[in-house]
Specification:
about 80 residues, mainly alpha, two-stranded antiparallel ribbon, 3 helices, 2 strands, globular
């Protein structure tokens, strides 16, 4: 794909943070997302937004769907 080293490194770290800190959903249909105590979700989201912009810039020929936003809807819709 040809990502810059910085973007590749940041994408790897960001994905690793997700795996290490996302605990799942409450066991109900409208269950809230659960994160490891002390995890700064706002910083993780900000890094995801930086990664989005970098991917668009580095890969303009691709149509990228940023599905990760579906896992943190309240942060984009004003719910939180």
């Amino acid at each position: 794909m040809g990502l810059s080293e910085e973007l590749g490194d940041r994408l790897y770290r960001w994905s690793r943070l997700w795996r290490e800190n996302f605990l799942g959903r409450e066991d109900r249909p409208d269950g809230k997302l659960r994160w490891r105590p002390g995890f700064n979700i706002r910083e993780w989201i900000d890094e995801g937004l930086w990664i989005e912009k970098a991917l668009i810039s580095e890969l303009p020929e691709y149509d990228i769907d940023f599905l990760w936003r579906h896992w943190v809807p309240g942060y984009f819709s004003g719910d939180n």
